[in-house]
């Protein structure tokens, strides 16, 4: 009987609006959601998608490629492939089938556990806006407690920086054929490769990022074949390297005479070498592949499947 009396008394007390009861009730109401938040956020792993960044000069076809992967094949008259003029990069979420198929068209439908998701991030190609693109590559990917990323000066979403898996540098192979576009294109590529080289140079721990030089517009008969795009770019990169380091080379200073990292910082590839080749980037774990293709003009060129397969391998 006494137990029942005790329970009754407790029940009555809990229904009596005394200050103690009110305080306990208030605490429960306020603390329960906070506790629930901590329990849920501790048990749910925070996932960041791997990202692939699209860079390259204006007019190379970056936006067209993004649109193609997002919406499937375009007709050549489609207005969907117009350059986006916004200053902030746009990104789309794509998935690659785990049992990789040969065509992006099949992969686009991949869903469920067999699909690996990633972000394809477009960047503006205009010279004045390139630092945005470059800051994405130099970001170390170390996340601060407040969610910002070390080394990034832009307001890029943290998830796009945290897991940079690959860089696609798009070039217009038809524009390269007349030679005028070569210096500016190579200048941009130099900056991109140097940024990636610096990520791993000097013993820094950063995951190596492979580069695909996508020689676009091969549907046009005026376009240079991928092998020529490669050799022309290598030659021009070598020339830029020589010009940039003119003072240094003339003074006869060798790599051994310099303190680690000093001056050699802006030298791309193997220090002191005469000719530049993309293979020299392997010294810094940066693998460079040059593959030809086209976004527009289906059936008139190799298409975009080889690029898609390259990306799929790196995710
Ligand atoms: P972005 O500045 O790098 O984003 O370049 P865009 O995607 O805006 O492309 C510039 C122009 O090149 C557009 O008119 C596209 O239709 C065209 N273009 C893109 N890819 C190809 C291609 O493979 N072949 C041809 N012939 N034109 C292309």
TrEMBL record:
<keyword id="KW-0812">Transmembrane</keyword>
<dbReference type="GO" id="GO:0005789">
    <property type="term" value="C:endoplasmic reticulum membrane"/>
</dbReference>
<dbReference type="InterPro" id="IPR027417">
    <property type="entry name" value="P-loop_NTPase"/>
</dbReference>
<feature type="transmembrane region" description="Helical">
    <location>
        <begin position="20"/>
        <end position="40"/>
    </location>
</feature>
<keyword id="KW-0675">Receptor</keyword>
<keyword id="KW-0472">Membrane</keyword>
<comment type="similarity">
    <text>Belongs to the SRP receptor beta subunit family.</text>
</comment>
<keyword id="KW-0342">GTP-binding</keyword>
<dbReference type="Pfam" id="PF09439">
    <property type="entry name" value="SRPRB"/>
</dbReference>
<dbReference type="GO" id="GO:0005525">
    <property type="term" value="F:GTP binding"/>
</dbReference>
<keyword id="KW-0256">Endoplasmic reticulum</keyword>
<keyword id="KW-1133">Transmembrane helix</keyword>
<keyword id="KW-0547">Nucleotide-binding</keyword>
<protein>
    <recommendedName>
        <fullName>Signal recognition particle receptor subunit beta</fullName>
    </recommendedName>
</protein>
<dbReference type="InterPro" id="IPR019009">
    <property type="entry name" value="SRP_receptor_beta_su"/>
</dbReference>
């Amino acid at each position: 009987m006494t137990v029942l009396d005790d329970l009754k008394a407790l029940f009555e007390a809990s229904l009596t609006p005394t200050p103690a009861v009110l305080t306990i009730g208030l605490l429960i109401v306020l603390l329960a959601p906070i506790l629930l938040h901590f329990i849920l956020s501790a048990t749910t792993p925070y996932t960041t998608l791997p990202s692939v960044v699209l860079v390259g000069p204006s007019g190379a076809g970056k936006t067209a490629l993004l649109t193609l992967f997002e919406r499937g094949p375009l007709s050549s008259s489609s207005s969907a492939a117009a350059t986006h003029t916004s200053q902030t990069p746009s990104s789309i979420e794509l998935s690659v089938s785990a049992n990789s198929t040969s065509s992006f068209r099949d992969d686009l439908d991949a869903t469920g556990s067999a699909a690996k998701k990633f972000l394809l991030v477009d960047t503006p190609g205009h010279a004045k806006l390139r630092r945005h693109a470059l800051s994405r590559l130099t970001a170390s990917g170390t996340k601060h407690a407040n969610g910002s990323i070390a080394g990034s000066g832009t307001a890029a979403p943290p998830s796009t920086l945290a897991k940079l898996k690959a860089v696609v540098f798009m070039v217009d192979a038809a524009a390269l054929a007349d030679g005028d576009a070569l210096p500016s294109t190579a200048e941009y590529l130099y900056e991109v490769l140097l940024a990636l080289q610096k990520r791993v140079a000097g013993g820094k721990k950063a995951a190596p990022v492979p580069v695909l030089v996508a020689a676009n517009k091969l549907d046009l008969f005026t376009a240079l074949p991928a092998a020529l795009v490669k050799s022309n770019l290598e030659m021009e990169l070598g020339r830029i390297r020589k010009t940039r380091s003119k003072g240094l080379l003339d003074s006869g200073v060798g790599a051994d005479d310099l303190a680690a990292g000093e001056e050699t910082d802006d030298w791309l590839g193997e220090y002191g070498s005469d000719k530049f080749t993309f293979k020299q980037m392997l010294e810094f774990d940066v693998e460079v592949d040059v593959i030809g293709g086209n976004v527009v003009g289906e059936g008139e060129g190799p298409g975009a499947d080889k690029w898609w397969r390259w990306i799929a391998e790196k995710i």
